[in-house]
Specification:
With 214 residues, the chain is α+β, with helices and mostly antiparallel strands. The protein is 27% helix and 25% strand. The protein contains five helices and ten strands, in the order H-E-E-H-E-H-E-E-E-E-E-H-E-H-E. Strands 2, 3, 4, 5, 6, 8, 9 and 10 form an eight-stranded antiparallel beta sheet that branches. A two-stranded antiparallel sheet has the order 1-7. The structure holds flavin mononucleotide. The site of flavin mononucleotide has 9 residues, from strand 9.
Length: 214
């Protein structure tokens, strides 16, 4: 769908998901993430960049597991995560919009839970590449987990936490020859609707991931 069409549909409140490609399983048990491999950190930092052209090739479940763990997985026995959060509120939820449906990443269980049995990818941003890239992540803040954070600071703290998660994704991609771009040019209302979010949940950013086109 073109950007202009999306903008028009968005203005009319009619930017909606497409039918899913295949039947999304209600839950997906991810394979254990690999904690080795990929390019070293300094090489990944040298190669980090935003890409906006993606091949349609799907990501394997193993790559998805590795990517989500790098993004915001549990990396310590006490439940600590690969990205920090103010007062350890862990207020960010990572949603994965796949061709077969949209899923919530359950980090502790290393599972995906289906939240929408549609192809939500085209709703995750105005730019046309989001429709065909194999994965669009959505970072959502759950304000109900931030009761210890002063109300006036909640949005900025959550945005900072989402930014760190995004950089984890950037570095994973740079380290594994994947392409990615973080996106704020999104229709937050349409995404919230498509994912069935509650009033406590705030859509912050989306990030496309896939194989580079060339
Ligand atoms: C908060 C934020 C929002 C962004 N939103 C978008 C966006 O909506 N669409 C897009 O194509 N790129 C977006 N970008 C990516 C920037 O355009 C990109 O990082 C910048 O051009 C520098 O390029 P580089 O990432 O390759 O260094 C965003 C970046 C940040 C940090």
């Amino acid at each position: 769908m073109s950007t202009l069409t999306k903008l028009a549909l968005g203005m009319m409140g009619r930017l909606r998901p497409k039918p899913a490609k295949g039947e999304g399983a209600p839950t997906i048990k991810l394979p254990p993430s690999r904690k080795e491999g990929g390019a070293p950190l300094m090489v990944a930092l040298s190669q980090r960049r935003s890409d906006r052209e993606f091949a349609p090739r799907e990501l394997s479940l193993q790559t998805l597991s590795d990517l989500l763990w790098a993004a915001y997985g549990v990396n310590r026995p006490d439940g600590g995560r690969t990205a920090p959060s103010a007062l350890n509120a862990q207020e960010i939820d990572v949603y994965a919009a796949l061709p077969s449906g949209a899923y919530l990443y359950a980090a502790a269980a290393n599972m995906l839970h289906l939240v929408a049995g549609h192809d939500v990818r085209s709703v995750t941003g105005y730019q046309d590449f989001v429709d065909e890239a194999p994965l669009d992540l959505v970072f959502v803040a759950d304000h109900s987990r931030m009761s210890l954070v002063p109300a006036g600071q909640r949005e900025s703290y959550a945005s900072a936490a989402a930014g760190v998660i995004s950089q984890n994704v950037y570095l994973f991609c740079a380290s594994n020859d994947l392409a990615t771009v973080i996106r704020a040019w999104i229709n937050r209302e349409a995404i919230a609707d498509a994912l069935g979010l509650s009033h406590d949940q705030q859509v912050l950013l989306s990030q496309t991931v896939g194989y580079p086109k060339s």
